[in-house]
Specification:
Elements lengths: L4 H4 L1 H4 L6 E16 L5 H18 L19 E7 L14 E9 L5 H14 L9 E16 L5 H14 L9 E5 L12 E7 L2
Antiparallel strand pairs: 1-3, 1-4, 2-3, 2-5, 4-6, 5-6
Helix pairs in contact: 3-4
InterPro entries: GyrI-like, GyrI-like_CCH_Lin2189-like, Reg_factor_effector_dom_sf
Protein name: GyrI-like domain-containing protein
Pfam families: GyrI-like (PF06445)
């Protein structure tokens, strides 16, 4: 039976449309860092490269490559860590060209550095791309976080962040850093803007 994150890990990926506290343990990711406007071609290319690797890992057993502890699963959603260059902070209007990001796709526990390297080898042979050399495999643990489901345009996220900041103030929680995580539950290439579902998350103490 296929492992489905939507059913098994709702606490991480399907929060309510109001702030909640969650403890995020250590997960493994394939990731790629960059900067600039998310509407650019380079950003789309980065997403494409990550998915090539994610599906190469998922399909390995079907292609005759055994992975210790493998089980079939639904590929995890795209995530992004977002920051701003120093000169763009504190301005009233967000300058998207000054955004700094790390895009990532979580991997099941059985994925190791060795599995990642094998996937990289496969993709480089079948679909070489200049960005592949910038992708790395890393474990991350976020710990205590405040998260909330944002429904609608990415441009309206500021309103949801304000709700989250008020929740933190009311509950004696301090936001560790304004670098925040977004998890894209909807496929933004196929979903109407007003129906987009994005998990927004701050690390707190």
């Amino acid at each position: 039976m296929k492992y489905e994150w939507r059913k098994k890990e709702k606490e991480y990926y399907l929060p309510k449309s109001k702030p909640e506290v969650v403890d995020i343990k250590e997960f493994k990711f394939i990731q790629l860092s960059g900067e600039g406007n998310p509407n650019s071609e380079g950003f789309s290319e980065a997403i494409g490269v990550l998915y090539l690797l994610a599906y190469a890992i998922k399909m390995m057993p079907r292609n005759g490559i055994d992975i210790d502890g493998y089980y079939d699963y639904v590929v995890y959603p795209l995530e992004g860590l977002w920051d701003l260059k120093e000169e763009a902070r504190g301005k009233e209007v967000l300058d998207k060209d000054k955004l700094v990001y790390t895009l990532m796709i979580r991997q099941p526990d059985f994925v190791t550095e060795e599995v990642f390297n094998k996937a990289m080898e496969i993709v480089k042979k079948k679909k070489p791309h200049r960005l592949l050399d910038n992708v790395n495999f890393e474990s991350r643990e976020e710990g205590k976080c405040v998260q909330m489901m944002h429904i609608g345009s990415f441009d309206d996220e500021a309103m949801t962040f304000e709700v989250m900041k008020k929740f933190c103030n009311d509950n004696n929680l301090e936001i560790k850093t304004l670098v925040h995580r977004e998890i894209y539950i909807s496929d933004f290439r196929k979903t109407a803007t007003d129906k987009l579902k994005t998990v927004l998350r701050y690390r707190v103490r």
